[in-house]
Design brief:
It comes from Occallatibacter riparius. The protein has 373 residues and is mainly alpha-helical. The protein has helices at residues 2-5, 50-74, 81-95, 98-105, 124-145, 156-165, 168-191, 196-199, 204-224, 230-258, 263-266, 271-289, 295-325, 328-334, 356-369.
Amino acid sequence: MAELQEINDPRDVFSQLTPAYDIQRSATPERVGEPGYYGLPILKRPFWRWEIALYFFFEGISAGAYTLSAIADLTGNERYAKLVRRGRLIAFATMLACPPLLIADLGRPERFHHMLRIFKKTSPMNHGAWALSGDGLFATLLAVFMIPAARLPFGRVLLHLLQRLLPARVVSALGLPFALTMISYPGVLLETTANPVWSHTNFLGPLFAASSMSTGAAALALASGNSNDHELDRQLARFEDISAAAEAASLIAYAASAGPATRPFTTGSQSALFVLGAIGLGIVAPAVLRRSRSSVLRSVFAPLMTIAGGLALKWAITNAGQESAMDAELANRNAPSSTGRPFWGPRSDAGEQQSSDSFISSAPTTLISGESA
């Protein structure tokens, strides 16, 4: 029961129940009018902590930088050579933090490799495990290929052979599908949960993708600094503007589609971080600074703010699930189907199957009174 001891939210009544979750003691008939399931939250609160928020942040930068560097490399334009090199280094460096963060969050960290025993096409989490493995493999290969073989104290022949058999451009192209999966899969994964703040929309995937590309481009711009290639600087700034616009559009679409489920971001515990950090610091301020006459503001502060805003966005979205799960009203809206029938299992005629609402309403009374259904 170590997990239950981590819950400090007074609204989480599960922390006050017995280890066997003795629902009958709390779900009494006089509480039938209360929100949720006789006053109890319908959903279990997620136990994700800071590890997952940081994982979403680092994998977004890594995948975004990899995608940009791979596309630039595939153009064959020598002007992008330094950009490609920096992108590969950023992708590798930020990817290194991802596996430890994910493994640390597991209940049984020593079993992390079990995710790779199968490929399950219907599981976004399984897709993410394979995407992270593929992205990490190709990002590592590209980083190793940047080392001159002559400088190695050992393994020179092997590295030289690999560099001849696998050109860096081919490796970069092979890793691109994995990076493209990485930029958006966390949002798709969250949408498949029952948590209202995540599941009441189809725009978390696009939002994560836009944020990943935005932070990846910002990391590249920050690494490039105030270079002598003004045209390349302008192209990066233009791409940052496009990514920021896509992120803003995704945020608007998310808010419009999720509706009341966005309460953690509008009036809840994550509102300040979301509005001031993700929107103000991550989108609005960099857009203004990129049009400044000061090269320091354009090449240093604007990218830094974009990266900080990306962290604020991922942190707010991750932690909003904690509050949303405790919102019995929102969770109850998500439970019954629009037709009044259970939304799970095979469909049947209304006259032959009891509605989910009536079944839930009658269950505790039947259990407590001892009457048969």
